[in-house]
Amino acid sequence: xxxxxKDLFRIAIDNLLNNAVKYSRPGGRVILNAEKLPENQxxxxxxxxxxxxxxxxxxxxxxxxxxxxxxxxxSRSGHGLGLYLAKRIVELHHGTISVHSELGKGTEFSIQxxxxxxxxxxxx
Length: 124
Description:
With about 120 residues, this protein is α+β, with helices and mostly antiparallel strands. The protein has a single domain, classed as 2-Layer Sandwich (Heat Shock Protein 90), CATH 3.30.565.10. It contains 4 helices and 4 strands; from the N terminus they run H-E-E-H-H-H-E-E. It has helices at about 5-20, 55-60, 70-75, 80-90, and strands at about 30-35, 40-50, 95-100, 105-115. Strands 1-2-4-3 form a 4-stranded antiparallel β-sheet, with helices on one face. Helix 1 (about 5-20) runs antiparallel to helix 4. The mean pLDDT is about 90.
């Protein structure tokens, strides 16, 4: 199993959080949940109550440079790289990333990966 690169992994989580905030309506909630699963697995989920993603767009959201053509998406800044990078980073850590969404109701992205035991090091 690969060691977790905290800096890279933080980029993936930041991209998901930034999207959740960007595509949420004013006053909407963004929730980050982390849970330990059996067999040393971890699951991190980020959900929002935003504009949602159509089933057609869900199939393509992780493609490089892909952005939905919907007005609610094109009216916001972006380059179609955040989710692509998040997926690549998660895959580098032998993890998986998935999306579940309903138009007008919100979106949840989930990352699952093998948890690494904590290691404390001190320099003498």
